[in-house]
# Entry
Amino acid sequence: MNAPFKLRPYQREAVDATLKHFRRSDESAVIVLPTGAGKSLVIAELARLAKRKILVLTHVKELVEQNHAKYQSYGLEGGVFSAGLKRKENRHQVTFASVQSVSANLDQFRDEYSLVTIDECHRVSGEETSQYQRIIELLRQQNDALKVLGLTATPYRLAMGWIYRYHYRGFVRGSREEQDKPFVHCIYELPLSYMINRGFLTRPELVNAAVAQYDFSALAQDRFGEYAEKDVNQLLSKHQRVTRAIIEQVMELAAERKGVMIFAATVDHAREITGYLPQHQTALITGATDMNDRTLLIQRFKQRQLKYLVNVSVLTTGFDAPHVDFIAILRPTQSVSLYQQIVGRGLRLDEGKQDCLVIDYAGNHVNLHHPEVGEPKPNPDSEPVQVFCPGCGFANIFWGKTDGDGRVIEHYGRRCQGLIEGVIEGLLEPVEENGAGAQSERPEQCDYRFRFKECPHCGGENDIAARKCHQCQQAIIDPDDQLKDALKLKDAMVIRCAGITLSASNGSSDSKLKITYHGEDGEELSESFDFSKPAQRHVFNKLFGRRFANSQAPKEFKGADEVLEMQALLPAPDFVIARNQKHYWQVQERIFDYRGNYRKAY
# Structure
């Protein structure tokens, strides 16, 4: 049977990647395609090729309807199981369903399904009690070789991190110490820039606003890089003139535009914005909007009876209005994924549409085309930087800082995300046979650490947050406990180190090196290393050479003169602990890459 529709080349590649993966493994997989890339076509083709039953899940009725309609439009027949659409059909080979309706009617899904496809799968959590996981677990009871495939434009969430572990291009996401991820493999990914450059999406016209903008930088962020609604409302209430000026500019720029979406920071903010817009041309949608009213407002907007659509965090996914050609962002976010979702609302192709105007009034400073780093921004000055691993050569993307010439001068990466060479060549090595004959695959992550905590028992390098050595399984002393214990002692000194200076010990530049640690309050501690003695040379290289240039270029120094020539790239510890030896202070501990409760020196 020939395909009733023609796939774009990348859609065919995504389908082929899925077939290839599930022929050799039953482990869950993710396809990452930008908003507007036509995920529904990929879903439809996979469903067409399937010989057994398939369940297609998503979280909103609009997407259930969209995916089903696309499938039906190619002459294929499928069922719909969604209370919101008032349909409960589960006897077709392919069923398009809302996760809420299936979860509430698990007893009607006792058949053997071969594949579960989840659209907007970044909403899936790793928790066993979640609706998605309960459905998957039930279907696995009927078929232990069940395949689980997710599709999303944004595989990263600030609240959860990456939704998968292994990437087909040969790198990993996160560490084994993290919580389980809902998916194992990313098997295909396409960047937003690819779609735009090849004309599959509308070009975004990113413009800096010529009016006053909001400044959210003074607000406290939570651990996910977001702000408390109360704090945002308090700030915005003091800047009503700014909001009015912004909306006046939006209306002026919208004169030649067809559809305008405005993303507000809070419900109160959205109501204020709506008050400045022409009433007969404007709709406001929040999480509290009645579903029937919401459907009607969206329908009127799509039919261009309304020009302005103001919303608060409810239309970032599952919303399709190709005529939208103006996106105004009035809400703060540190999430590249969320930012891409917002802008993506205006990038679908439409007749006569030349570009999509995008104006960020919230000062988010997000690079639309840059990949997600995978950690909340450590400080406002951070930018994504590329850091090559000295161990395997993999090009990592971390938060960091660059100089005027674009060279990386600092980064916050902890461990290389590359897969070791032996695994990359074959990509994945099967380690066991599962019940269905497909092989379970477990690639190995490069063990090079840019920042590390050394085990005092075996010398192994561990993550800076580790409590137990991953090599010898012995407990590692927590830096906070070290500092606490030292501060209790009368004969101990603890300094917050602000920097180090180096000099030749006793005037000799050949073998002896003196390091002076400078405390933030003016204290000083010093120690010397004799490079003519192998043991002392080894200790210095373990402490400082291994961390040379942020561990981007670890060195084995052979002499003190060699160290003095490159001292600008030597790291300083965050804390130094010394004990009193009658006539001098002897340095006993140097704590690098501190992440605890005591303030870190800057």
Notes: The longest helix spans residues 9-24. The two ends are 66 Å apart (CA to CA). The first strand starts at residue 29 and ends at 32. The mean pLDDT is 85.
